[in-house]
Design brief:
Shape of chain A: elongated
Number of helices of chain B: 22
Helix content of chain B: 55-70%
Strand content of chain A: under 5%
Number of strands of chain B: 10
Radius of gyration of chain A: 28 Å
Helix content of chain A: 55-70%
Largest sheet of chain B: 6 strands, antiparallel
Distance between the termini of chain A: 50 Å
Mean pLDDT of chain B: 87
Number of strands of chain A: 0
Oligomer: heterodimer
Mean pLDDT of chain A: 79
Structural class of chain A: mainly alpha
Order of helices and strands of chain A: HHHHHH
Distance between the termini of chain B: 57 Å
Radius of gyration of chain B: 27 Å
Low-confidence stretches of chain B: 300-305, 644-656
Largest sheet of chain A: none
Structural class of chain B: alpha+beta
Chain lengths: 148, 656
């Protein structure tokens, strides 16, 4: 069902992600730009990073990001610059503060909880439960089965 | 006439589904044999009626009957025949009809092959399956009827979305639905067992083949979708953690967990209530997936079926089935007492660890998928959760799973001595770590992804092989080979399935870590070097296809003195749909793909050309195929066949 995801995005624009004319001369800076682009979301696309997107706004952000890096921003400053303008929506990893901590702690907490449950279960299963005498209903079922 | 009859059959199938939902259930409760037996003919009739309805809709597409609204919106006379047929399910209404047809098909398969099921359980399974069918058919008929006519039919249609006019994607939905809907049958078994209040080894044996079948289809469906994304989207990604992808991935993870826990029910009569819960969750997440995809709540600006009425209806279906089943579960789970006794270090213990990892990872994917929705509803914050989060949160679970897999799969039931079980594996572990270290030393850069991935993959693959070899016992080579060939198919299936998982792990980590990329402006006649390959842009021409116009580049790729031939990446425009697509050209290889994309013409002449070297890309899908083969091998195991065809099998099984 991938096609649903990308369908309308591709309708608007010709397809091309990072274009040759955007690439910076300095390979180290360009590498940083590419890595950061993969973590930034194109604001009008469905789940595409600006690195992959062909939308014109994605191109604008890519160019803007590179301008900031050329101007000497650190990675954090450059990203913050974009967040200030486009909102935290552009971050693919939401900032780990406030309510978002639930998101980040979901995996470890769930793992510990289910691990503990499993451990309790395992301990219980290790001891044989005393055999209970058959109930009336079970006796009747045995008789029925034996008849068959 | 054909189409009208199809419409009529669809409505009739809904009525039959309602009967199938009620009558056998009452019969089972009152012990009325006649009422119970009604489930079988109802299920058969339902699949025949829906089969006709589906055939009628296909007929309308094939003959381009533009008096049908659906055909007008999704077809065109110039479209190639293959895509006229696959266009039937390339839209919301048609795909829902396919979904309903498959529900009915699974129900009918229980009626046809479930001869050895106790009549009461069979009646209840068919009734629950009927209720799933009735709900889906009601949704189809009342909110998204595919047979609606147009008052004034146009001369031609608006064409199918060009992205769907592709062989890889044409068969992606049917497999996915066979998977999703296959889980509805395990759900029906679970609910029927809860109504009965009894789960035993036999139940485990009946449920497992259906789970396996659903899981195999889901694996193939997801792999097809991912493969398509790889070659069609133009940058060679294969997985994007998109909500719609996650919607198919969560049921897959739950189905994988269910597959393993049902073994414990079958062999050891333990984990019963957990297995029932998993069966409910697996189908529940299929429904949640359908809701996510078809309601458009998680799709921000764009959506497929962004219709509040449909979304609401799907939410109600999901709520009723999940809520009902979970309530029943809460009421009855106590009575499902486990029998088997085992120590923590045992096959049972290992399978529990597998289940913890798989289901927690599925929940993590779920939390990540719905988090933007929760944040918007509760705190009015618009935020995104994307690949960086999922990669970080999900990968550790798969690493842990791969790490424990070979040992866990080799532990004996009930009680294991870890030292003794580990014995034969030390060599393999050392070998795998050595392989990882070697890759670490050779590769440029410090990414741990490829070394760890390769070490884990070799550990899983070698471990699965060693498990089989150990099962062959002692003795000479011929004796061992003889015993190997006589091992149950389920054992082979297990080993092959695990190997497939290992291969996919390797493919994913190698591709992610080692992709090499080159983006440049090239003029006609330019040649340049990408890695070990010399790439030449020979020509760019305009070509006319059956229903599209194409700009096709001819790019020659040479490796040393070996000519790899000419690749022809295209940019297509489908004038009717008004949509461009990219067709990447790929030179497939066992160890690498050379992947070429032609971009836009540049202002100063020349063309944007992207070249990727994608190492081991095909291993990802090869691993999925191997996984599915493992599942299929296991499906042909004697005990399922004996169970399935019990009536036909002679009473005394002759010694082999």
């Amino acid at each position: 069902m991938r096609w649903l995801a990308v369908l309308l995005v591709l309708m608007a624009e010709p397809v091309s992600a990072v274009e040759p004319d955007e690439i910076l001369q300095d390979p180290a800076l360009e590498e940083r730009a590419r890595e950061l682009s993969k973590e930034l979301r194109c604001p009008v696309c469905r789940n595409e990073s600006i690195d992959e997107s062909s939308a014109s706004i994605a191109k604008d952000i890519r160019v803007l990001l590179r301008e900031r890096l050329v101007a000497g921003d650190t990675d954090e400053q450059a990203v913050q610059f974009l967040v200030d303008r486009y909102g935290e929506f552009v971050l693919f990893s939401p900032p780990a503060q406030g309510a978002n901590l639930i998101l980040y702690f979901a995996a470890p907490v769930l793992l510990v909880l289910s691990g503990a449950t499993a451990a309790v279960y395992l301990r219980r299963r290790a001891k044989p439960s005393p055999a209970e005498p058959l109930s009336e209903a079970e006796k009747a079922r045995v008789a029925e089965l034996l008849k068959e | 006439m054909i189409v009208e009859l199809g419409h009529f059959c669809l409505v009739l199938a809904f009525a039959i589904a309602c009967v199938q939902m009620v009558v056998p259930l009452v019969g089972a409760a009152r012990n009325w044999r006649g009422w119970m037996a009604l489930g079988d003919p109802a299920a058969t009739l339902q699949v025949l009626l829906l089969g006709y309805a589906f055939a009628a809709l296909t007929w309308a597409f094939v003959t381009s009957d533009f008096s049908l609204r659906l055909v007008t919106l999704n077809s065109h006379t110039a479209k190639p025949m293959l895509y006229k047929v696959t266009g039937v399910w390339g839209n919301h209404e048609g795909s829902m009809l396919l979904w309903c047809l498959i529900i009915a098909l699974y129900g009918a398969m229980v009626a046809w092959f479930g001869g050895n099921l106790p009549p009461r359980l069979r009646a209840r399974v068919l009734a629950v399956q009927g209720s799933v069918g009735a709900a889906s058919l009601a949704f189809l008929i009342f909110t998204s009827n595919p047979f609606l006519r147009l008052e004034v039919p146009p001369f031609n249609g608006r064409d199918l979305n060009p992205l769907l006019q592709d062989p890889g994607l044409a068969f992606h939905p049917p497999f996915l639905y066979l998977g999703y809907v296959g889980l509805s049958l395990t759900f029906s078994f679970a609910v029927a067992a809860l109504i009965e209040g009894r789960v035993d080894a036999a139940w485990g044996r009946w449920v497992r083949p259906w789970t396996l079948l659903a899981w195999v289809c889901l694996t193939i469906g997801i792999a097809l979708g991912s493969w398509w994304a790889y070659y069609e989207l133009g940058w060679g990604g294969f997985w994007f953690w998109d909500p719609v992808e996650n919607a198919s991935f969560m049921p897959w993870l739950f189905a994988a967990a269910l597959l393993h826990s049902a073994i414990v029910v079958e062999k050891r009569e333990a984990l019963k209530s957990w297995t029932i819960l998993l069966a409910i969750l697996a189908f529940g997440f299929s429904l949640i997936g359908a809701f996510i995809v078809r309601s458009g709540v998680l799709t921000s600006v764009h959506a497929f079926a962004n219709d509040p009425e449909r979304g609401l209806y799907l939410l109600i279906i999901t709520g009723v089935f999940m809520g009902g089943a979970l309530t029943l579960f809460a009421a009855r789970a106590e009575s499902l007492e486990a029998k088997g006794v085992f120590q923590p270090i045992s096959r049972e213990g290992a399978l529990i660890a597998n289940n913890v990892l798989l289901s927690v990872s599925a929940f993590v994917v779920f939390v990540g998928t719905i988090w933007p929705l929760v944040a918007e509803m509760v705190w009015d914050r618009k935020l995104s959760v994307g690949p960086p989060f999922f990669d970080a949160a999900f990968t550790p679970f798969m690493v842990a799973l791969a790490a424990i897999l070979p040992i866990g799969a080799a532990l004996p039931w009930k009680r294991a001595v870890l030292k003794r079980s580990l014995g034969p594996f030390w060599g393999l572990l050392a070998l795998s770590v050595a392989l990882g270290s070697l890759i670490w030393a050779v590769q440029t850069g410090t990414s741990a992804l490829a070394p760890v991935g390769a070490a884990l993959a070799s550990w899983v693959v070698l471990g699965a092989g060693a498990d089989l070899w150990l099962r062959a016992g002692r003795g000479g080579l011929t004796q061992k080979l003889g015993r190997l060939s006589r091992l149950p198919r389920a054992d082979w299936g297990k080993a092959v399935g695990h190997m497939g998982f290992g291969i996919t792990v390797f493919g994913v980590s190698a591709l992610t870590a080692w992709t090499h990329e080159d983006i440049r402006v090239a003029h006609i006649g330019d040649a340049w070097q990408v890695g070990r390959y010399e790439v030449t842009l020979n020509a760019v021409e305009n070509v006319e296809g059956p229903n599209y116009l194409s700009t096709m580049a001819r790019i020659r790729v040479v490796q040393g003195d070996r000519d790899l031939g000419t690749l022809t990446p295209e940019k297509r425009i489908y004038p009717v749909a008004g949509m461009p697509t990219t067709e990447a050209a790929i030179d497939n290889g066992v160890f690498r793909d050379v992947y070429v994309v032609i971009g836009d013409p540049q202002e100063n002449g020349g063309w944007a050309v992207r070249t990727f070297i994608k190492p081991f890309a095909n291993w990802i899908w090869a691993g999925c195929i191997v996984m599915s083969l493992g599942g299929l091998l296991s499906l042909t195991d004697r005990r399922f066949r004996v169970a399935a065809g019990a009536r036909k099998a002679p009473k005394g099984v002759p010694a082999e």
